[in-house]
Design a protein that fits this description.
With about 550 residues, this protein is of the alpha/beta class. It is built from 22 helices and 13 strands. Helix 12 packs across helix 13. The structure holds 6-O-phosphono-beta-D-fructofuranose. 6-O-phosphono-beta-D-fructofuranose binds next to loops.
Length: about 550
Amino acid sequence: MAMATTPLTERPAYAALAEHFARIEGEHLRTLFESDATRGERMVAEAAGLYLDYSKNRVTDETLSLLFELARQSDLERRRDMMFAGDRINVSEDRSVLHVALRMPEDASLVVGGVDIVPQVHQVLGRMAAFADRVRSGEWKGHTGKPVRNVVNIGIGGSDLGPVMAYEALRYYARRDLTFRFVSNVDSTDFVEATRDLAAEETLFIISSKTFSTLETLTNATSARDWVVGELGDESAIAKHFVAVSTNDERVSEFGIDTANMFGFWDWVGGRYSMDSAIGLSTMVAVGPEHFKDLLAGFHAMDEHFRTAPLEQNLPVIMGLLAVWYADFFGAQTVGVMPYDQYLKRFPAYLQQLTMESNGKHVTLDGTAVDYQTGSVYWGEPGTNGQHSFYQLIHQGTKLIPVDLIGFGRSLNPLRDHHEILSSNVFAQAQALAFGKTEDEVRAEGTPEAVVPHRVMQGNRPTNVLLAEVLTPRLLGSLVALYEHSVFTQGTIWGIDSFDQWGVELGKVLAKAIIPELESTSEPALAHDSSTNALIRRYRALKG
Ligand code: F6P
């Protein structure tokens, strides 16, 4: 039954969940586990190389069936099918949302507006592979005839975070004789530090920008162009040292990059969903076309799981519904994501854009203000480092913070017993968070009475544990797609547009007006609010 047009809080399953929540809010995970010996084996799901244990969540079988009911009443399956069919579900920008097409196999077909887009995707992938091979083999020569040894991606947001995260995550598979750097911040320090030890004649810049109009990226790209031309003394060097990744060929050629050296994508790929498009060019140069193909295969495996598995066994659906459960019923404000793999150190930063730019929305698709919480704040750090800094608050603080713990069966760099120590912490943290330590247990350890309350661990803190064999390109693809579709699930329940980002625009416009006021050599007439006026005056005085 399609009911998505009914406001969320008026859907029958939502009301039932509210009533159910009042009854089970106080239930402790200790009791839930004591009363069901099979819970840890039952509340699991598996797909595309990922095993999800969601048993340590504050849910009962009834909670889960109400959440699945809510998904159905929110039209999740139909909206998912609409996305895969290329319907314009990004309503505020009137666009299709087809990142799933980027990883469809070559023999697949997806006709959108009368055109099969899969051959287009593979045509670009073919060009990327040919280029990556030329750089990797040394056949692509710089202006002075030397092969490329350094690749610098210039981009920001989705044109940076995916490439950086993927490079770090797949470093084990990357060419070690090539140096990769990523410049995103318009702070000149970022560009200067990234290039200070590089020889321009051996450096290739990939200018990545979907729109090719982002001020930060164009500013950095202009400085890169000046640097190359300055070092090599010749404008014609640009052709050998710059390639572009964009949807906007006009702007690319205006900037001075030959569109023969441009790799395109399409407006139906959102920036934060683009790491598997041509935006992944630096990834492909680093790990090679075959590994990139495996990455796409991992994405596709999770897409197929999301598209076809029953909701009750569907990993992204389960994770998305749990996120809604904590945000809207428990009032949780944040979700922690802790990968127990050093290679995934930039994964939480990547997820911040994916989740928060997607679901940080205050109105529904038809523009009505929501009367419930939407997107949570996502954050995290690799384990075990986080345990020695902020985990204290998760264990004993006053806030409820659901946590995803991500672990692997094998290390890519085995060394003595490091991996067992690392992995034991995944399981121990999930245990400690769920079951805690009672007053009686603390006393039984001979703790002085005055210290007992300090050492009590209430437990009942929820976790998801994700386990996989080993971090491969394929697994990384599955993991990213899992979170992409979890975001989709959450956005669908909330009835919001997860694919626009109007909230980032106002700041850009205001900054554009302020730039000349900071640059002006004569005292500008300021007409902002009194705080902004005073800050600008103070800045001008500080700058001297
Ligand atoms: O300002 C936000 C944003 O539009 C992101 O959505 C996007 O990933 C980023 O800027 C960069 O945009 P572009 O790839 O067009 O330079």
